[in-house]
Amino acid sequence: MRANTTDGLKAIVADPAGAVIGLDFDGTLSPIVADPAAARIAPGGAEVLTRLGGLIGSLVIVTGRPAAVAVEYGSLAAVPGLVVLGHYGLERWEAGALAAPPVHPGLDEARAGLLALVAGLDGVRIEDKERAVAVHTRQASDPWATLEALAEPVAALAASAGLTVEPGKLVLELRPPGIDKGVALDAFLRERAARSVLFAGDDLGDLPAFAAVRGSGLPGVTVFSGSPEIEVEADLVVDGPTGVLELLSSIADAIEKETAG
Ligand SMILES: O=P(O)(O)OC[C@H]1O[C@H](O[C@H]2O[C@H](CO)[C@@H](O)[C@H](O)[C@H]2O)[C@H](O)[C@@H](O)[C@@H]1O
């Protein structure tokens, strides 16, 4: 284990009240599945987060999903103290209340343009998230070639609509600019006056959050929820959502042991 991993985990366990644990949703808490609407938290996930939420200062999910969707698919409504930052930080869900800015004016153009682009493309799916719109190629006969073929026209559409392209696992998303998971996590660390941080993610959209952990100056750990689809540099690599939940359980065990001892 790298030195900063050990230091970060030790700091979380020694001072759980000052800890922020940040988690991505898809691919980190929820296994990747073909249909985005069928994604659900891995078995036992809500229980692990409920336990951890009662032990640490701040538990936050930072996701590309709408916050309410992550709460629903994760069965997370009762997790103590949980904050969910949806749409890469545009939205904030906390204690059942959602705060969100108005919908970006470019979304209508993006939605119509994407529908026209993918008309007739077999297996290509549009996910309309109200504040963003995504095109998925996972169910196409050649998912990677289809993704590559869409990259340029999707970038042109985003530029015309005043949106940014967020690439991910067999997905291109058009969303409002000016925020990412790094900006969102950095602001959250400041808000909570964090004294340590861990962030776990699995995709390109999580890289700014990993950079925020490294740039925070805090004892911190980046965790890659590993999968064969992409490689991401992180302090710790675990085996997908099951590995993430095992890690979180082991942190909860260590905190309880420390508190009891
Ligand atoms: O920030 P996240 O919580 O990781 O969300 C990123 C995107 O995840 C979803 O797409 C991914 O998961 C799907 C379900 O497993 C999978 O079918 C797809 O191929 C993946 O890219 C979600 O559908 C997007 O809206 C999120 O932005």
Task: Describe it.
This protein has 261 residues and is an alpha/beta fold. It has two domains: 182 residues, HAD superfamily/HAD-like (Rossmann fold, 3-Layer(aba) Sandwich), CATH 3.40.50; 69 residues, Trehalose-6-phosphate phosphatase related protein, domain 2 (Alpha-Beta Plaits), CATH 3.30.70. The protein is 39% helix and 21% strand. The chain is built from eight helices and twelve strands. The strands form two sheets. It has an eight-stranded mixed sheet, with helices on both faces. The chain has a four-stranded antiparallel sheet with strand order 6-7-9-8, covered by helices on one side. The protein is globular and about 65 Å long. The protein starts with a helix and ends with a helix. The site of the ligand O=P(O)(O)OC[C@H]1O[C@H](O[C@H]2O[C@H](CO)[C@@H](O)[C@H](O)[C@H]2O)[C@H](O)[C@@H](O)[C@@H]1O has 24 residues, from strand 7 and strand 9. Keywords: Hydrolase, Magnesium, Metal-binding. Removes the phosphate from trehalose 6-phosphate to produce free trehalose. Belongs to the trehalose phosphatase family. This is Trehalose 6-phosphate phosphatase. Pathway: Glycan biosynthesis; trehalose biosynthesis.
